[in-house]
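Hi R.,

Here's the chain you asked about this morning:
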Amino acid sequence: MRVKLISYTPDPLKTIYVAAKSCYSSVPPDKIETNDEAKMEKLIREIIKMGHLSILEHISFTFAISGVSRVLTHQLVRHRLASYSQQSQRYVKMKPDVVIPPTIKRGDETKGMFENEIERIYEIYQGLMDKGIPKEDARYILPNAAKTNIVMTMNYREILHTSSLRLCPRAQWEIRQLFAYIKWEIKKVSKFLASFIVPRCITLGYCPEKETCGLMPKKEER
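And the predicted structure, written out as tokens:
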């Protein structure tokens, strides 16, 4: 898996701060002072704590994501407040390159079973195309494990929401890894903004799931 931040709103902290201050200021937005970083962070932290999150929608981040499975992207695109552009199996001839889950990879027998079946699938895929079947139809044989590439743009509010769900230890390992990388990429731009990218139990102070992983107690157990 490779995740790279390729674009983002310039001066994201200033943008959020100006949006927030504009709601209560008689000064035009472009005249609001943005020289005091500590002051800006304090206000943004307070507003996030209060749950007034619409100001966070004014900034967005675009990521180039590669080498992930179709399993992951099927989960990812369920988060609808984002824009996605994904590698097309209809037009691109797919190589026999797949994601192997760690639980399968660490056993010699299970790894062998998996790899043998993947090899057979791709032989059929190639065989269908050799017989004149178009790529868009031959792809029906391809596995969920097939690697894919996708470009994703999300506003910061949606990143916080999605991360709060996908960083949960109970989330599937691959998408959890993706959002750990996303946090790391945002941290390169702003450690302050990255600090809010946490599982929702950290924000709530308790686990809202039916069963806790142990990171936080259930609400009734606090």
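Residues 2-84+147-221 form a domain with the Gyrase A; domain 2 fold (CATH 3.30.1360.170).

Let me know if you need anything else.
M.
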